[in-house]
């Protein structure tokens, strides 16, 4: 039975792979493009009604209610449509995991605790079929991050229309990922359900002491790495120390995966001690220390707003309200979707939920575009529809944050009009022909 199950899983995977071989990346932009008569959501809170956008050589060269199109430009009439900056999926395993249930398709973690020199971009599979399911939701860029251990390695930002990882790379090694130890006790059951005792009957270790020892070990690693990188010509090469050099000149960020107040407080102290550019990932309890995060200029990536609160005393809708509380406190934050089932597709709708709980629509849009771009270190290139930035743009017939009306008709990455086709759209078109029906949606 086990062999049959594995064979079936592998067959399903191969069928998915082979079903989309004809979807190729778009060629480089060959002529200027002008998008006219659009409602433009800039991404920085500004909305331009009946506006136009000019794109030349992959860059936005003009935005406004009155622009002069260049000679020979292709015109796209967006009358009655909404134009948005391409959405950004932060902290994902996109391209590192194909099928969650098939271990051979997962390349997201390494063994060991201190894997500073691991680079997720090297393992990124630009032909991952999940990618094609994200673009029709308006998601054009993603941060691919390693997992596992204490220091997992470095993440990179990729654009989602590429032949290989070299083409996909948008910003490589933008930060390192540290998994904050838990300060909460974990039950250890021995033989016969030992009530929290180990197999030999010993009492469980002190979780706070264990966590603090691990943190002290990481701090010692940082001190050694800082000393190593302060030497012009070290006698011996240490790849792990060299991999974290960017933390000390702040060219790289430290993404600390932390949920509880205790974890976040320890992270803040670490940021102060080593003068780190830090981002909290997860941040379920970040609303309780929002003022402290603001004072220390620490950003937050809210991993999964569609979830239950982590503490029994919290309001049941606390995860939905957290974004609005961070906004009120002035904390820079991004909204994410790290659900293992949706694989990022619900990113705009998670932001839409935050609108129902206190954010404005433009604030929610910024949380998945410009805010996310700034947090990932690419805010100078993307995240908003502004002159000089890459033309990462999506056009929708309805509100991109609303699951009912989100309908992306065109999308551009660096001025290239990309395909919105996927395995799902192929099946949709196939059975429309079989049944002889027109579009159902």
Automatic annotation (TrEMBL):
Q: Which Gene3D superfamilies match?
A: Metal-dependent hydrolases, Urease, subunit C, domain 1
| SUPFAM superfamilies found in the cross-reference section | Composite domain of metallo-dependent hydrolases, Metallo-dependent hydrolases
Pfam families on file: Amidohydro_1
Give all residue intervals belonging to the Amidohydrolase-related domain. 324-416
GO MF terms here are: hydrolase activity, acting on carbon-nitrogen (but not peptide) bonds
Keywords tagged on the record: Hydrolase, Signal
According to the UniProt entry, where is the signal peptide? Answer: 1-21
* Highest rank taxon of the organism: Bacteria
UniProt keyword Signal, yes or no: yes
Q: Which InterPro entries match?
A: Amidohydro-rel (IPR006680), Metal-dep_hydrolase_composite (IPR011059), Metal_Hydrolase (IPR032466), Metallo-dep_Hydrolase (IPR051781)
Q: What is this protein called?
A: Amidohydrolase family protein
Q: Which organism is it from?
A: Flavisolibacter ginsenosidimutans
Taxonomic lineage is:
Bacteria, Pseudomonadati, Bacteroidota, Chitinophagia, Chitinophagales
